[in-house]
From TrEMBL:
<feature type="transmembrane region" description="Helical">
    <location>
        <begin position="70"/>
        <end position="96"/>
    </location>
</feature>
<feature type="transmembrane region" description="Helical">
    <location>
        <begin position="188"/>
        <end position="205"/>
    </location>
</feature>
<keyword id="KW-1133">Transmembrane helix</keyword>
<keyword id="KW-0472">Membrane</keyword>
<feature type="transmembrane region" description="Helical">
    <location>
        <begin position="39"/>
        <end position="58"/>
    </location>
</feature>
<protein>
    <submittedName>
        <fullName>Methylamine utilization protein MauF</fullName>
    </submittedName>
</protein>
<feature type="transmembrane region" description="Helical">
    <location>
        <begin position="144"/>
        <end position="167"/>
    </location>
</feature>
<feature type="transmembrane region" description="Helical">
    <location>
        <begin position="108"/>
        <end position="132"/>
    </location>
</feature>
<keyword id="KW-0812">Transmembrane</keyword>
<feature type="transmembrane region" description="Helical">
    <location>
        <begin position="211"/>
        <end position="235"/>
    </location>
</feature>
Length: 269
């Protein structure tokens, strides 16, 4: 894969200045495990889930809704982290980092880009969360706490079995990446906003983890627009956190190579 960094060109409007970095494509993929090993992992995951769920239920003083929230939001944040380990995540890194060598001036020039990127994630969460919560409210899904919790548990188990190749589940997604031609047409802060919104709606690009489907169903079943928006915001916070982390650490090529390697090993199914 070749990454051409022209963020400075887009932000300044001057003549193009090519700065090309080569990052090798991932050619190493996860090895298939025996069915016994995969079954053992499922049993361990179920056992850990039962222990954690019981502990959180006790922590929530017997409130089922609060216990579910304590489980859902950390899961949503982890799902956001995993979602950035994707083709869309690592391919957009070079456009969302400070340009050139790190200095006070380059970081200050980069701040509008990353802030607008965060605003894009927030706008995406508002849109998706309001839609899911609104649909749930119209269907009075909020009154179905116990059936809803059972549906979430079944969905999580089925997609877990899917990940371990015991079951095939649908993987609805739009197989597209963020628009890379935006770098030639817009300033860097506009690119940050566009990319944040595209990734923040979560279904506009590749879906990298089935945790998104669990978060989606939970937000809809809540029947509460505010809760649904907050849940999607937690998911998007995980996505944004990863971008911020890579923006302040390491060389651009090393970060892109790392995410490419992780994406190649995980992959969407």
């Amino acid at each position: 894969m070749i990454n051409t960094n022209q963020g400075a060109t887009a932000s300044s409007g001057l003549h193009p200045v090519e700065s090309t970095e080569r990052v090798l494509d991932c050619i190493s993929f996860a090895q298939s495990q025996s069915w016994q090993a995969r079954l053992l992992l499922i049993v361990l995951a179920l056992s850990a889930g039962a222990v954690i769920g019981t502990g959180l239920d006790l922590q929530a003083s017997g409130s089922p809704a609060q216990a579910l929230t304590l489980i859902l939001w950390p899961l949503a944040f982890c799902g956001g982290l995993l979602s950035t380990w994707s083709p869309c995540g690592y391919s957009s890194l070079s456009l969302l980092r400070p340009q050139g060598s790190y200095s006070a001036r380059s970081v200050l020039a980069w701040l509008p880009t990353i802030l607008m990127h965060a605003l894009g994630y927030l706008a995406g969460a508002l849109l998706l969360g309001a839609l899911l919560g609104g649909v749930g409210a119209l269907l009075s899904a909020g009154s179905l706490l116990v059936p809803g919790a059972i549906a979430l548990a079944l969905l999580a188990f089925c997609y877990g079995a899917h990940q371990f190749d015991f079951l095939r589940m649908p993987y609805p997604q739009r197989r597209a990446q963020v628009p890379h031609d935006a770098r030639f047409r817009f300033r860097s802060w506009v690119i940050g906003l566009l990319y944040g919104f595209a990734l923040g709606t979560n279904y506009s690009t590749y879906v990298q983890t089935p945790i998104l489907y669990i978060v989606t169903l939970a937000a809809a079943l809540s029947g509460d627009i505010a809760f649904a928006i907050a849940t999607v915001c937690v998911f998007n916070a995980g996505r944004f956190f990863t971008h911020v982390g890579q923006s302040i650490a390491g060389k651009r090529s090393s970060c892109t190579g790392f995410f490419g390697h992780i994406s190649g090993k995980g992959g969407n199914r």
